[in-house]
Amino acid sequence: MYVKYSTVTLDECEFTGNTLVLGYAAGLFVDDASDVTVIRTVFRDNVVNSGYGGAIVCNIGAVLELYGVGFSNNEVSEPLKVDSSVHNAFSYFCYTTACPEGEEPFLYDGCVPCTAGSFSDSTSTSPCTPCPEGTYSSATGAIECTGTCPPETPWSPEGTVVPRNCGEPQCAANKYWAESDQQCTSCPPHLETSRAGSMSIAGCFSIRASFFASSMRSERISAFNADESNYKAIADVSFPDGLTFISPTMLIVGNYDEILAFDAEGTPQGVFASLRNTGKAFGGLIYLPDLHLVGVAEWQVNIEVFFFDVHDFDGTPLGLGDVVARTSLPGFNTNPRYLSRGENPDELLATNINYADFGTVVVRFCIPTEATCNPAERNMVLVDGGSDIVGVEVLLEKGTFLVSNRLPSNPGNGRVWECPLDITTTMNIYSCALFAYQPEGDGWEWDPYQIHADDEKGVVYVGDHDYMKIHAFFFDGTYLGRVEEMEGNLGAPTDFTIYEGAFPPLSTLELPDSGVFEAGTDITAPLTLKNHRNVPIGDEYPARPGIYSIEATGLIPGTNYSSTITGSIEYKDDAPSSAALTASLNIPFVGDWTISLTGGNSNPQSFFGSPTTITVFPAPTDPASCTTTSPTVITAGSDFTATVSTFDAFLNPTSHAADTFSFALDDGRPPSSVVRAGTSASVVYSDTMTRAGSYELEVIFHDEEISVSPLNFDVLAAAPSAAASTASAGTTTSIESAVDTALQLQAFLHDEFGNEVFDAPGVVVNIQGLDPLDPAAVVEHVLEGPRYSHTVTVLQDLEATLTISFSLDGAPIGEPLEISVSPPPPPEDPFSANNVIFLAGVFFFGGLGIYYVYAHLTKTANDTSLKTKAKEVRANLFMIAVNVVDVLTDFLNWHITIARACAGLVNHLYLGFACASVVGMLIAVSVSVLQLLHLKSDADEIKTSEELEAEFIPLKARYKKVEAEAEAGGAQVQPVAGDAAAAAEDEDPVNALEKKLLARIERIHTDKTEVFQMQRDQKRTIAGVIQIIVEDTPITFINVLYMVYGCDLGVGAGEPLDTVEDENNCPPVQERVGSVFIFTTMLTVALATKKVVSFRGLGAMKRNRERLEREIKGMEEEAGGWLAELVRKRTGGEEPPAAETRAPESASAEAELRLAAGAEAELRLAADAAASLRAENEGLRRRNVGLAEEGGALRARLEEAEGRERRMIEEKEAAEAGRAELQRQADEEIRVLMAEMEAG
C-alpha cells in the first residue's frame, strides 16, 4: 500500500504474503507529507526481493504511529532497532538521518553520495538537488555543479551529467531564456504563461484579457475583472447572443431581432441594426475589419447570413434594406449558429443546426461581396455527424479548425475537436482529433460552447456554458487553466469576445524608484496603457482619461482615522494614446500611503503594481505652523522652559536634523541658538530667570518669527528676604512738629535676587518716642502690601528723638532709624510791603500803557490816506494781544485772590465767569483774525481800479511839478505886458478835465476809506459789547464784592453768594495781595466804558456810512462820464484851443498826453487786430477739421472701390478657369467620340 500527501488511519487490517520484486516495502510505504496511524494490524510473510525494507517503509517528512501492530516472518535486508512496544521490531523503517554535503539520506543505509548530475552543498536531510539548467556534473558526491555550458550552446536541462547535452535554449512552457543569467527563468506572476522555447520575457503573457461575455440565460453582458478574478455585470440585455467589437469604442450584441450598441464601459450607444416585425432573429456575429463588414447569422426564418457595412451606421438603426449582401449556407435545411473566419480572407465557416434530422454540421461559404471566392468550389459541408455543434474557430497557424461538441446525450462530457482545413469531402466529426476533454481532470464536467483563438498568444479560449467558466489552452491542446477563479456575474456564457484596447492589469504606473516623496509636493507618474498582450495600445484606441482614477489611502498623522486623497489624470494631446495620460497626486500627510490606480467606470480594475505603497516624509519646517508649550508664570530662580513642536506647512511633525532655532529674550542679552537634538519632533529652550517682570521670548526660525511668537510670560518675585530688603522714614533725619506734621514710613521688600515683593505678610514697624509723656513707649504697626507703608502723625510742637525699626517675620530689615523732631520756627511773611508795591506798580502802569496804545491805534486807524493797510494790521494784532492778556489777567486774579480766600459759591461763580470770558475773547479774537484775513479784499473796495490808481496818482504828482514850474516861470515874465500875460492864464481844457477827474477820484477814494473804517469799527464794537456782557461785567462784579468784603466774604448771614465754609480761609497777608487787583478792576471798568461809548455811536456811524455810500455812487457815475469825455478828447474827437503864451513845460505835458493817447489808440487797434486774427484762426481750424472728415470719407469710398475691383478680378479669373475646364472636357469628349468612331 502506497500513501503520499494524505492522512490515513488503518485499523484492524492485515498485510499478508506480499512479494515486491524491486522497491521499498512489500506491505506499507508511507511517502512525503503523509500522516499514517496503524492500529491492531498484522504484517506477515511480506518479502522484498531487491529493495530497502520489509513490511513497512517510512520516507522523509512522513509521520507514522503504530499501536498494537504485529509482524511475522517479514523479510528485511538489515535489522533496525525500534520501540519495544511494537511486535517484530525489525519490520519497518523511517529515515531521518542528516547527511553531510555531497551526500543524501538513503533509507536505513544512512547516507550515500549524490549521483552524477546532482549536488548537495550543506548538511541536510533532503535529497541531492539536480544541477540547474545550463550546468552539469559528471562526478558523484558533488557539492556543486562545476560544469557550465559554453556560450554557443548555453542551455542544458536540469540534472545534466555530461556537456554533450548542452545545446540551444529549450525552455519549457511558462519559462523564458534569461540572457543575463544564461538560464531559463519562470515568467513573472502577472505574465505567467509562455510557449515552450521562449527566448525572452517578451514571450511571457497572461491568459487573462479584457473579456466581454453575453449570457442568454442570465440576460446580461459581463466583463472580466482581474482584481477579483471574476466577472462584473455591465449591462442588462433581455436576449443576448453573439457579440463583437466593431471599433475601438463600440461593442455590438445580438438581441433576438435587433443588434444593440454599447461602448467599452457598457454604456448604451443605441441600436446598430433592427429586424423588428420581420420574424427574423440574429445569432452569431463576426466583424471583418478589412472589409468593414459585420456578418450576422439569421437562424429564425431565412436561415442565411446577412452582411452590414459599419460605415453605413450613423446612429440610426440599420434595417433589412441596409443589408449589403446575404447568402444561404450549403447543406439541407440548415440554420446558422456561430461564424468564424475561414482559411482565406474571402470565406467564412459557420456551424449549422439541421432541423430535419437534428444533426449539426460545419460549413464553409464564400463572402458574397468578394469575387475572388468561387462558391461552386468553396461552399461545402466540412464536418457532419455530431450532435449540437456550437462554436467553431480556425487556427491558421496549424491549418485546422476547432469545433465544440456539447454532446447533449451525455451532459458534462462535451468535447472540442480539431479538424483539418484542407478537407475535400465531408468528414465525420469523430474522425477529427480530440483537442480537449474535461480539462480540469477526471470528474470535472464541462460544457464547451463558443471558441476564440488568439494567434499572437497562441492560446485558444473555450467558453464552458453550463458550468460558467472560460478555459485557456495552447494551440497544441495543453491546458493552461481557467481565466477566472470565480464566475461572479458571468452566468452561462453564450458568446464572448476580447477588447484590444487598454487592459489595466497590464498597464503600468511609473512612480519614481525611490518611492519616497516630500509632503505637499506634486507626485506625477506617467501611465503606459497596454492591451491584454502586454503591448502598448495603438493610437486608434483613445486614452479616455475620464475612466481612470488614482487615489492614496493612509492614516492622518497622530490619529487612527483613515483618509483618502483623490488625484487627477491629465491628458496630453501631442502624445501617443499609450503615453497620453499622467497621474498626479499631492499628499499633504506623512506616513505610508497606499496608491491605487484603476481603470474603468463600470468595471474598475487595478493597474499592474497597484496598489503600491509609498512613503511621504515631512516638508521643510514651517515657522507659521510651529507650536509651543511653555509656562506663563514662573518664580524667580526657576528655569523657564519652552518646547517648540515643529511642523511643516501641512501640520506634519518634522524632525529635520539641520533645523536651528534662535531664541531672543527682551532683556538685552544676545539671542541663543538651539539645534534640534537628533530626530526629535521638538526643540527645547531653557533659561534660569532671576529678574522679576514680564518678558517676551521671540522664537526665530530661518530669519522668520514663528506664528505663536513672541511667548509672553511673567517672572514673579521669590519669597522676600530680610537681608535683601530696605526701609525708609523719608529723606531727612530731622523734621518740624508743625500742625498735622506727618511722617511717612515704608518698607521695601526684595527677594534674594533683588526683586521687589508686594504681597508678603509679617512686616512690622516699631516706633519709639511718639509719646511725650512716655518717651520709651513703643508703638507697633503691621505693614501690608503692596506698599508696606504707614503714616505717623507727629504731635504739634513735639520735641523728641524717634527710633524706628522694621522687621520681616522677626528678622530685622536694615538698621534702626532715628528721626529728630523739633517745633517749627515762626512763619515768615512771603509778601513784604516792597513786593506788594512792586506788583501794584507793574499792573497799574502796564494796564495804563495798554489803554493808551489801544486808544492811539484806534484813532490813527481812521486815517483816510490810501496806504492804511499796515496800520490796520497792527491795530488788529494789538487787539488780539489785549483780549488774550485780559483773559489771562482774570485767571491770575482768581488764582491769587478768590481761589485762596473763597472756597464757596463766589469761587465757583468767578471761575465760571472767567471761563465764559474765554468765549468772549475767542469772539473778539476771531473778529480781528477775520479782519486780517479779509484785509486785502476790503482794501480793494476803496479803489476804483488798478488802472486808475496806476495812471492818476503819477499824473497828480506830475501836475504838481508843472504848476510849480509855471509859477516860477510866471514870476520871471511878469514884466511882459499886454495880451501875453492874459493869454498865459488860459488853460488847456484837457488838462482842466484831468485835474477835475483827479480831484473827484481822490474824493471817492477818501470816502471809501472812511466807509471801510466804519465797517471794521462796527465789527470791533459789537465784539467789544459781547465781551462786556460775558466777561467784563461779571468779573468786575465779583472783584467789587471781593474789594468790599475782603477776607470776611462769606461770613455774614446776609451774604447769599457764599457759604460759611470760607471763614478763616484768608490769612491777613492775602488782603494786601488782593488790593493789587483794585487797579486791574479800574482798568477793566475804563475799557468797558470805552466800549459802551463806542456802542452808543453805532447808530450815527451807520447813518454816516449809508450817506457816504450814496455820495460815492453818484461821484463814481459823474467820474465815469468825465473819463469817457477825456478819452474822446485824447483820441482826437476835440482839439483844445491854441495857447500862444503856454509855457514850454505845459506844451511838453500836452505832447506827452497826446503821445499817451496815441499809444492807447494803437494798443486798442492792436487788440482789435489780434481779436480778428484769433477769429480767422478759429475759422481755419474748423475748416481743417471739416476737410479731415471729408478726407476720411473719401478714403473709405476709395477702399470700397478697390475691394469691388479685386472681387471683379477674382470672378473674372474664376470664369476663365471654368471656361478652360469646359473646353478641356469638350475636347476630351470629342477625343473619345473620335476614338469610338475609328474603332467602329
From TrEMBL:
SMART domains in UniProt: Ephrin_rec_like
The keyword Membrane appears for this protein: yes
Transmembrane segments: 836-854, 875-896, 908-933
Coiled-coil region: 1098-1125, 1156-1232
Key words, A-Z: Coiled coil, Membrane, Transmembrane, Transmembrane helix
Name of the protein described by the UniProt record: Tyrosine-protein kinase ephrin type A/B receptor-like domain-containing protein
Organism: Tetraparma gracilis
